């Protein structure tokens, strides 16, 4: 995920701002880390450079 995407990304649940916490970067791209919504306190993982912005479900089967 390119750092420049932070300008346009928002929380898919509440549309709040996301805070980036990168644990691994390469060539200006975030490979591993977390996007955290400050408003609703939901974490979205970044794995292999791909952010998973699917809203978390309350109950999973």
Outline the secondary-structure elements.
Elements: E1 18-26, E2 29-37, E3 43-47, E4 50-51
Antiparallel strand pairs: 1-2, 2-3, 3-4
- Name the overall outline: globular
The total beta strand count reads 4
Strand order of the largest sheet: 1-2-3-4
Low-confidence parts, pLDDT < 50 over ≥5 residues? Answer: none
| Major sheet summary line | 4 strands, antiparallel
Helix content: under 10%
Q: Determine the structural class based on helices, strands and strand pairing.
A: mainly beta
DSSP strand (E) fraction?
35-45%
Order of helices and strands: EEEE
Number of discrete helical segments: 0
- For the termini, the CA-CA separation is 30 Å
Radius of gyration: 12 Å
- Average predicted confidence as pLDDT: 89
Detailed description of the structure:
- The chain has 61 residues and is mostly beta strands.
- It is built from no helices and 4 strands.
- The protein has a 4-stranded antiparallel beta sheet, with no helix packed on it.
- Strand 2 and strand 3 (43-47) form a beta hairpin.
- The model has no long low-confidence stretch (mean pLDDT 89).
Question: How would you summarize this macromolecular structure in one to three sentences?
Answer:
The protein is built from no helices and 4 strands. The protein has strands at 18-26, 29-37, 43-47, 50-51.
Main traits of this protein?
61 residues; globular; four-stranded antiparallel sheet; 4 strands; mainly beta
């Amino acid at each position: 995920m390119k750092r420049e995407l932070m300008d346009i990304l928002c929380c898919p649940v509440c549309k709040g701002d996301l805070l980036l916490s990168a644990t691994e970067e390469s060539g200006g791209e975030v490979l591993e880390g977390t996007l955290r919504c400050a408003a609703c306190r939901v974490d979205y993982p970044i794995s292999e450079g791909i952010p998973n912005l699917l809203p978390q479900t309350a109950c999973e089967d």
